[in-house]
UniProtKB/TrEMBL annotation:
Rhodanese domain span: 15-98
SUPFAM superfamilies to which the protein is assigned, alphabetical: Rhodanese/Cell cycle control phosphatase
Protein name, per record: Rhodanese-related sulfurtransferase
Signal peptide as annotated in the record: none
Molecular function per GO: transferase activity
Cited InterPro entries: GlpE_sulfurtransferase, Rhodanese-like_dom, Rhodanese-like_dom_sf
Residues forming coiled coils: none
Length: 101
């Protein structure tokens, strides 16, 4: 697992890069605000229910949550499942909305 900042991610989105983004928050959090990506709450990741992103194993996956804590846990879990390039969004949506909302 590596880290990525909100500034780095925003620039990459603005540049039109093809990104593999995973939101591990709960549905009500996602409904309030999200930056896109596939939605798999952390509980499902913990139960290894990640079939939806199985073909991302060799891709760079940017994982986010509210503050960066759950996404960090998700990155470690994904790493243990054989995903090779996970990145945790430092500060999560709190940092993102502080900068860009």
């Amino acid at each position: 697992m590596q880290n990525i900042t909100a500034e780095e991610l925003k620039q990459r989105i603005d540049n039109g890069e093809e990104l593999y983004i995973l939101d591990v928050r709960e549905p009500h959090e996602r409904a309030e605000f999200n930056i896109g990506g596939v939605h798999i709450p952390l509980g499902f990741v913990q139960q290894m229910q990640v079939d939806e992103i199985e073909d991302w194993k060799d891709k760079e996956i940017i994982v986010y949550c509210r503050s960066g804590n759950r996404s960090g846990q998700a990155c470690m879990l994904l790493d243990s499942m054989g995903f090779t390039n996970t990145k945790n969004l430092v500060g999560g949506m709190l940092k993102w909305t502080e900068l860009y909302k």
